[in-house]
Amino acid sequence: MELLITFDTETVGLDDKIIYDIGYCIHDYQGNIIRKNHCLVKEVFYSSYMQYAYYYEKNILMYLNMIDLKEIEVRPFWNFIEELRYDIEFHNINTVNAYNILFDVQAISRTIQYTVYGIQKRYDADGNVIKEDVLKKQSEGDYFRICTEMLNKHIFKREMSYMCTYHQACENLLASAEYVEMAVKNKWLTENGHNVQTSAEACYRYITGKHGFNESHTALDDSIIEVEILSYIYENCGLSKGIRFSPYHMVRKVFKSLYPQEAEYEKM
After folding, report:
1. In the chain, which residue ranges form alpha helices assigned H by DSSP?
2. Which of 26, 22, 60, 20 is nearest to 38 (CA)?
3. Which of 138, 169, 170, 206 is the most exposed place for a label (fewest CB within 10 A)?
4. Stated pTM of the model
5. Which pLDDT does position 76 carry in this prediction?
6. Three-state SS at 18
7. How many CB atoms sit inside 10 A of residue 151's CB?
8. Splitting the chain (268 residues) into consecutive groups of 10 residues, what average pLDDT does each group show?
């Protein structure tokens, strides 16, 4: 039985992407989960950065209650990583997955940098500072390579394969007239109303028929639904090769063909 690991992260900020909540599931392609783990990152959760976290006001009381009930621990980042490494080796994991893998490898990479070097600069896997003018010229693929090199060296200690459920979902499920029409009917739209949502939350609603479902925006719970999405695609569609960054463009193309006036004014 081939196993893989699916991550989810909750972060402080879109630019810095420092993780305060990290969770993962170890599972097979049929969606059978054999190991779940998560924690709040001590270096971030108890820092002043937390006030800038997404969903902070919504989730902070929930997290404090979870801590009181011993449903989650606040742990040093590298203590959690040691346990992750053990799980990777024990279960012979070779594939890392996430819904929008680029975001999560960036978040883990930035948290490595934050806990080792500090937040002020960006570094490559060897600890060399990457200049801002170089960063601005990099493609998504280049930055993905830099981040995965850091994860392979500092987290996994070996080469890993990477998969993106977001890409799989957009290509195999969401870039369809059926999904786009359902999304429009149920008002699963972007904030400006000129595109349909392509989030894990929207995808989960589509495949389960639970149209009122809302993500908890906690790392472990969100990683569990991402496992369900991947297994659904694996069993009903088959998995596509490679990783396509910004796969929402595939969905937008369908949306634009069906609703050209609504899509016309979206800023790309």
Report:
1. 42-45, 56-68, 77-90, 101-116, 132-137, 140-151, 165-169, 177-185, 200-208, 219-236, 248-258, 260-263
2. 22
3. 138
4. 0.90
5. 97
6. strand
7. 19
8. 95 80 98 98 88 76 94 96 97 97 94 77 57 59 91 94 98 98 95 89 98 93 98 96 94 93 58
Cα dihedral across residues 50, 20, 104, 165: positive or negative: negative
Residues 59, 62, 66, 71, Cα dihedral to 10°: -60
Identify the CA nearest to 44 among candidates 75, 85, 7: 75
Residue the block writes with tokens 């990099």:
138
Contacts for 218 with CB less than 8 Å, ≥ 6 apart? 10, 21, 23, 38, 59, 62, 63
In one-letter notation, the amino acid at residue 27 is: H
Query: Which residues contact residue 19 at a Cβ distance below 8 angstroms, ignoring those fewer than 6 apart?
Result: 9, 10, 11, 12, 41, 44, 77, 107, 108, 110, 111
The CATH class of 3-164 is alpha beta
